[in-house]
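Q: I'm a student working through a structural biology exercise. My instructor gave each of us a protein and asked us to get a predicted structure, then write a short paragraph describing it. Mine is UPF0102 protein AZC_4471. I'm not confident about reading structure output yet, so if you can add a plain explanation after the tokens, that would really help. Here is the sequence I was given:
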Amino acid sequence: MARPPPPDTPARRRKQAAHARGLAAEDRAAAVLEAQSFRILARRLRTSAGELDLVARRDDLLVFCEVKLRRSLAEAAESLQLRQRRRIIAAAELFLADHPELAPLAMRFDAILLGRDGGAEHLEGAFELEG
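A: Happy to help. First, here is the predicted structure for UPF0102 protein AZC_4471. I'll explain a few features afterward.
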């Protein structure tokens, strides 16, 4: 027997709106990478360590990209904390374990910062493995 849908509450509507903003932000970030000749290999990839927003490849370079949308680019930059960087690195390691053919590629951890005002900044090498 199917469960009835959850009640429509203000909290649920906020969560749905945040989810939609996140998807739109990831679309914008993917477009930034594609404009730089990257091919998107994965979006919102869930692993046991956490989620990878975007995984992209250009030639012999594999990029794990975190997307941050905030009111301003400065707020977006501040939101990428050490704990999250470690989670992204762990998720990337799991991704590579599942895709050993990509392991020989050069690897980089980027961030694409997006402001709600439309601003965007691509931080290449935003953090390192030691992160």
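A: Here are two points you could use in your paragraph. The domain at 11-127 is CATH 3.40.1350.10 (Trna Endonuclease; Chain: A, domain 1). The chain has a mean pLDDT of 92. It's a good idea to check both against the output above yourself.
Q: Great, thank you!
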